[in-house]
Amino acid sequence: MDLNGISSETLDAIKKSATTGITNATGMQGYDLSGVISLVPAPSSFYNSLAHSTPEQGADYATWRVLMNINNQQANPATQFDAPAPLHKNNLITVSAAYAKLGYGYTVTKDAIAKARGFADAKAIEVYGSMNLYKVGADKMSLYGSNIQLGTPGTPVVVQSDTGGTIAASTAVPVKVAARTGTNYSYGGSTAASAQGSVTTSSNAAATHSAVATVAAVRGAVAYDWFVNGFYYTTTVVNKVTITAIPTSNNAVPANLPGLFATAPATVPSSDSSANPYEFNGLLTTLSGDYATGGASGLVQAGSGLASGASFTSLDGATFTGSGQTVNELDALNTAFFNQTFMSPTAYMCSSVDASKLSALILGSSNGGTTYFTPGNDGRTDITAGGFVGHYINKATATPVKIEVHPNMVPGTLIARTDHVNFPNSNISNVFELRDLEGVQDFEYGVSRGTGPGGGPRFDGEVYSSSTLVNRAPIAQAVLSNIG
Questions:
Q1: Taking Cα atoms as reference points, which of 140, 405, 440, 70 lies closest to residue 285?
Q2: Is the dihedral of CA 107, 111, 112, 117 positive or negative?
Q3: What angle do CA 394, 400, 402 make, to 5 degrees?
Q4: Which end of the chain has the lower number of beta carbons within 10 A, N or C?
Q5: How far does CA 333 lie from the centroid of its chain?
Q6: How far apart are the C-alpha atoms of 42 and 408, rounded to whole Å?
Q7: What's the CA dihedral at 274, 276, 277, 281 to 10 degrees?
Q8: CA 122, CA 188: separation in Å to the nearest integer?
Q9: Distance CA 350, CA 222 (A)
Q10: CB-based contacts of 194, cutoff 8 Å, min separation 6
């Protein structure tokens, strides 16, 4: 070491940092730059399964024409000889689906890119993050988007009990309820609240009072917000709730509902936000809405037009039932479906919660025929236990129906989907299709100079598409809702 080359400033710096030995607390540690990780999931199974098409010219709507089933209105075909046969009847309607823009934006400064060089590509991370979130949003929109209102729920019926809660004797329990679409479930909003239902607990001072409120199922709703005493009480995925206490302030949203929008309603809603004019109608809405009549096209609120033909059944909070290889609710759905269409669904689309319930019911039965799989050659020393029921036999048609888990399906709602319609001359190549005016793309804006941090050289852009969902055969689909 050349001691003559050491400056006095260097010696002063060494004196200031001098320690007695090197320990974990005083020693030198490096930086383990192991890269950037992402803990944001991007489930988009339904969106990924959809066929995409692009129209030859731009338009506000994708439009097609439908011959509706009116077989039960036809004349008797028996005809007198030498006389003409009766003319058959047609019911031809026009259906349209409005295009909507879906997207997420990003911004990254040139300085941030420079400082991340050699460690991460800051711009690529921003674009890729927007792409992932776009796919999640597009999946939820394809399932649940809605630009038609659900309609205000009916007045809830409230029944008191002398057990199960902490409500005082002779206390009024006033309840209102609002319904949520699937996108309301993910992003907030609901219908306007219902009229108030109420019950007064009994005068039994020794009882532990509670109450159960029930409302008629709202077609197309996947969840319900309950308001007690003017405050937000909870959200359920069935059309009933058990009330164990009278709130004096808004509660937090329940933590056990996956994907529920994290912000609780601040007040009892007086206006309807269940419809969003910037959304296209997703799968559930194309089933729950009615076809417009009187020269209009598109979908309208359930009960105000011509029914789509989709089958809806509400379990009103009841769970799946059955024994052995039978699930009563699926058998009833399949029978009703066959009686209407003479077909079988392709798949049951459901959440992991409901798929697990089906597997537990069938495999947990004493008649279920438990099977143990023994991989490898370890005999019975390496047994794999448990099981998942991936198909269910449609007893009406003797065909298997796939049980599909879709991460963005809300628990409590199951959709029986049919991918192939074998009606004569149906002219249906794809039952479901995402029609894209513009397919998903990364668009980078021109940048204008701004003032302050973030206003300097940067890249601003967004990942977006202009799309709509086309459902050519709502009549070939069915829904089980309010599964307990």
A1: 140
A2: positive
A3: 110
A4: N
A5: 21
A6: 10
A7: -80
A8: 31
A9: 12
A10: 152, 153, 154, 155, 156, 176, 177, 178, 215
Pair of tokens at residue 297: 């096209």
Mean pLDDT of the chain: 86
pLDDT digits (tens, 9 = 90+) for 224-253: 999 999 999 999 999 999 999 999 999 999
Nearest to 264 by CA among 277, 255, 274: 255
Cβ-based neighbour number of residue 380 at 10 Å: 7
Asked if 409 and 223 touch (Cβ cutoff 8 Å), the reply is no
How do residues 108-137 score in pLDDT, each as one tens digit?
989 988 998 888 888 888 888 899 999 999
Instruction: Give one DSSP letter per residue of 256-279, joined into a string.
Output: TSTT--SSPPSS---S--S--TTS
HSE (side-chain half, CA atoms, 13 Å) at 199: 21
Q: What is the rounded CA–CA span in Å between residue 300 and residue 335?
A: 28
3-state secondary structure of 81: coil
CA dist list (Å): 283 to 144, 146, 351, 414, 474: 6, 9, 15, 12, 9
Cβ atoms of 192 and 207 closer than 8 Å: no
As given in the structure block, the two tokens for residue 441 are: 């793309």
CA distance 353 to 370: 21
DSSP label of 167: B
Domains within the chain, CATH numbers bracketed:
37-76+88-148+275-375+382-484 (3.90.1690)
* CA quadruple 352, 353, 359, 364: dihedral sign: positive
| Integer Cα distance of 120 and 128 in angstroms | 13
The phi and psi torsions of 337 (rounded to 5 degrees) equal -65, -45
According to DSSP, the β-strands at 51-53 and 432-444 are: parallel
Comparing 184 with 79, which gets the higher pLDDT?
A: 184
Distance, in Å, from the CA atom of 360 to the CA atom of 358, rounded to the nearest integer, reads 5
- Is residue 459 within 8 Å of 123, Cβ to Cβ? yes
28-83, pLDDT tens digit by residue? Answer: 666 666 677 677 778 889 999 998 888 888 888 888 766 656 566 777 888 888 87
Residue 66's pLDDT is 64
H helices of 24-172, in order, are 45-49, 110-116, 122-144
How far, in whole angstroms, is CA 420 from its chain's centroid? 23
pTM over 0.85: yes
More confident residue, 89 or 339: 339
